[in-house]
Design brief:
Blueprint lengths: L12 E2 L4 E8 L2 E6 L3 E3 L6 E8 L2 E13 L9 E4 H7 L4 E10 L2 E9 L6 E10 L3 E6 L2
Antiparallel strand pairs: 1-4, 2-3, 2-8, 3-5, 4-5, 5-11, 6-7, 6-10, 8-9, 9-10
Length: 141
C-alpha cells in the first residue's frame, strides 16, 4: 500500500527577501517588524507595509542559531540562544529572510544577519514552536 501526503500551504504573504529590523516579545507573542513589509502571494504580488505577530509562542522553544559567516559550507563555530537572549544582546541589526518553513506548530525563518557595527553577515535561523496564529497586519496603501 502506498499513501501519499503533500502539505498544502496557502500562505497569504511571503517573507522571502524581506528584511526584519526589529523583533520583540510581549507575553507569549513574538512581533516581527520589517523595513518594507512583505509580498502578497496572490496576483499581482504586490508588496505591502506591515508586520507579523506569532501568537502563543513557547518561549522555551523559541531560539536563534547564528551559524557561518556568509552561509559558507564546511566547519563553523555557531551559537544557539533563546530568542529573548538574542533580543537582549542585539539591538541594532537587519535580518534578511531567505527561506521560511511552516509545519507542526513550528515556524522557521532562515537568512542572513547583518550588524552595522561589524563587517559582513552571518547565516541565522529563527525557530519558534507556537500554538496560536500567525497574524499579518498590513497597512493598506
Amino acid at each position: 500500500m502506498i499513501t501519499r501526503f503533500k502539505q498544502q500551504m496557502d500562505m497569504p504573504f511571503s517573507l522571502h527577501d524581506m528584511v526584519v529590523n526589529k523583533i520583540t516579545c510581549q507575553n507569549d507573542s513574538v512581533h516581527i517588524q520589517f523595513n518594507h513589509g512583505y509580498v502578497s502571494t496572490k496576483e499581482p504580488y504586490s508588496q505591502v507595509d506591515g508586520h507579523v505577530t506569532v501568537e502563543n509562542v513557547d518561549m522555551d522553544c523559541a531560539c536563534v542559531l547564528l551559524l557561518s559567516q556568509f552561509g559558507q559550507y564546511g566547519d563553523f563555530a555557531g551559537t544557539k540562544m533563546l530568542l529573548e537572549d538574542f533580543i537582549d544582546q542585539y539591538d541594532e541589526y537587519s535580518f534578511e529572510i531567505v527561506d521560511e518553513m511552516y509545519g507542526s506548530n513550528q515556524v522557521e525563518y532562515i537568512g542572513y544577519l547583518s550588524n552595522p557595527k561589524k563587517e559582513g553577515c552571518i547565516q541565522m535561523s529563527l525557530s519558534m514552536y507556537f500554538t496560536g496564529d500567525i497574524v499579518y497586519e498590513t497597512e493598506e496603501r
